[in-house]
Amino acid sequence: MRPARWCMLALAFPASLAGQRTPREIVDHVDRMLRGNSSRAEVTMEISTAHWARSMDVAIWSLGTEYSLIRIGAPPKDAGTATLKIDNEIWNYLPRVDRTIKIPSSMMGAAWMGSHFTNDDLVKESRIIDDYEIDLSFEGARDGVDVWEFVLTPKAEAAVIWGRIEERVRRADYMPIWVHYFDERGELSRIITFSEYRRMGGRLVPTVMTVVPSDKPDESTIIRYRELEFDVGLDPSFFSLRRLRAGTR
Amino acid sequence: MNTLPWWRIGWRNLGRNRRRTLLTALGLAVGYTSVVVLTGLTNGIIDDMVENATSVITGQIAVQAPDYLPERSIYETIGGRDGVNLAPLLAALSNDPAVAAAAPRVYAGGLVSSGASTAGTLLLGIDVDREAATSRLLSALAEGRLPTAGAREVLIGRELAKQLDVAPGDELVLVAPAADGSLGNDLYSVSGIYSSGMSDLDNNYALLPIRTLQELVALDAGRVHEIALRVLDPWDAPDAAARLTTSVGPDAVSLDIRPWTTLRPELRDYATLAKSSMWILLVVVFAMAIFGVANTLLMATFERRREFALLLALGTTPRRIVAALLAEATALSLISVLVGVATSVPLIAWWRHAPLDLGSLMGDFTMAGALVRPVLRTSSPGGMYVLAAVALLATALLASLYPAFRATRVPPADTLAGR
Predict the structure, then answer these.
(1) pLDDT in tens, A74-85
(2) Which of A3, B72, B143, B154 gives B193 a disulfide partner, CB atoms 3.0 to 4.6 angstroms apart?
């Protein structure tokens, strides 16, 4: 209920609330913006690397941060391939061989379906505010837009892979502009930029996310939301190995 | 100023007390023989280790695309995106006199899964016949049989088989990110299980026929990541690699041809370190010999006090007395070297022909990732024959300096008068 309430408030009175919100609350709000309590999304994932470029149609169901189910609809070679995440565990279903494979923890750093996301990106279930100290580093106009900039530093006991995260958010409507991820040595590792803010599923959301790895600036993974619904009434039993194999509709 | 008489006197003095001369010479000869033979044994152990470490899988020379190492990207195949016409390239590489065999390989990273168990593995695509002639990995087959070319069969290590709980004939799923961006996956059957004794290999590798792996990861038949070459004497590999770089290198495709000394610098460094440790042995053995020889010679000069006193009284310069004693030491060391060579050369020749087998005392063991046989192979001590001879001569000369000095200080009048 909390995120939904925050969203409604944010959309209704963004400016008037700004003064009362802490950096922690703002970052948490942005973190949860695309998740809701439960959600269903249809996205197109466009991956481009130095060696190939491909586009996949992907359906995503999620419940809180604990559960998600991701199914590839196209291209035909990969159609039906699905990933189920429950808490810290990931299973892949491979329709070609009709087998389900649990991803060992040693492979969490590997790319998900050739994209610039890792299995780890799917698994990280904790909310960003639990693992990071959040400080406001800038407040004012950047490129003519009124923004906040936050620096997120991992808490001492947090088991996270990033050394630091920086985030820029529009003040007017709490829309994220970019997130920069730095590794443990303090070097920029990847940049996610957000664009094409539109109303979807009753909320204003960035409908395009672009991930660019810093060591390969010519490569990218672009996620375009085609459909997005919130609070679709899923419960944990939906996220089962049987569902992973059998499809969802 | 003829120096010849002093040589002759030195030589004759060796015969004055033959038993003492013989014992001293034997002492030096044993020092010489032990240094030379131990060097031969150590070189043998090192050569054995290098050969084991390189021949199990690495090969003595690896031919790769220039950008393949260190990232081992699946895209960096020999000849780039277009691949290469393999047969002529393999023939050209095998043409070098030092190269005994050549085997093409495809590498990929992936998951291997059976039932509820999944493990990350290195997938290695091999030409079974060529691989058997190039590396020893396939001879480690413990159960079942080798995979058949063209079949969807996989050969896995003992540890991996245990982890996945599979036996020959069982089914496996392999999943690997393919070169076209898709997720390659298919069903395979376990043809056999190998046990190399090297835990890294037995844990992490799955071997497939080369074409089968190329199909899984969407690579054309001409695209391989590596051609491993077998060179019978590992120490010939750097020269052979240099030759191949100039002979095959400039052809249509760009190649990096690297010997094991470059691919595995830690192994080369270890071998060099172990070989140079023989210097310590050399120094210790002959440092000990110095005192023994010095003691004997000192005794001999005390015995000959009257002789030296007479020589001095007759007007012999101290320099000539020193020359006589140094000549004596030189003659002694020449005898010792002759005895040492006469024992060590046949001994080494014998052990090189019939290595010492310690198999009855201990089982096989692994060292620095290499399988070591408990057979003590002996190699040529090389330059140590000469080095030890020089050290022996230096020892004898050094040891005679002090006794010679003492001989020149004998007071002629007192000594001759018996006082």
Answers:
(1) 888 889 999 999
(2) B143
Model confidence at A12, in pLDDT bands (50, 70, 90)? very low
- Nearest Cα residue to B207 out of B155, B161, B258: B155
What single letter denotes the amino acid at residue B55? S
- In this complex, how many residue pairs, one in chain A and one in chain B, have their CB atoms less than 8 Å apart? 54
Task: Round the CA-based radius of gyration of chain A to a whole number and report it.
Answer: 18
How many other β-carbons are positioned within 10 Å of the β-carbon of residue A27? Answer: 24
How far apart CA A37 and CA B99 sit, in angstroms, is: 66
pTM, rounded to two decimals: 0.76
Taking contacts as CB-CB distances below 8 angstroms, the residues of chain B near A92 are: 175
Cβ–Cβ below 8 Å for B181 and A104: no
SS3 content of chain B, % helix, strand, coil (to 5): 55, 20, 25
Burial A146-180 (b: 16+ CB within 10 A, else e): ebbbbbbebeeeeebebebbbbbbbbeebbbbebb
Find out whether B194 and B144 touch, Cβ atoms under 8 Å: no
Dihedral of the CA atoms B23, B26, B27, B31 (nearest 10)?
180
Do you know the residue count of chain B?
419
Asked if residues B188 and B171 have their Cβ atoms less than 8 Å apart, the reply is: yes
Residue B404, H or E segment? helix B384-408
pLDDT in tens, B30-66: 999 999 999 998 888 888 888 888 888 888 999 999 8
Q: Which amino acid is at B78?
A: I
Inter-residue contact A183 to A206 (CB < 8 Å): no
Asked if B85 and B224 touch (Cβ cutoff 8 Å), the reply is: no
Cα–Cα distance, A180 to A189 (Å, whole number): 8
**CA–CA min distance B117, chain A (Å):** 8
- Of all helices (H) and strands (E), which one includes residue A88? none
CB neighbours of residue B336 within 10 Å: 27
Residues 25-64 of A with CB under 8 A from B: 47, 49-54
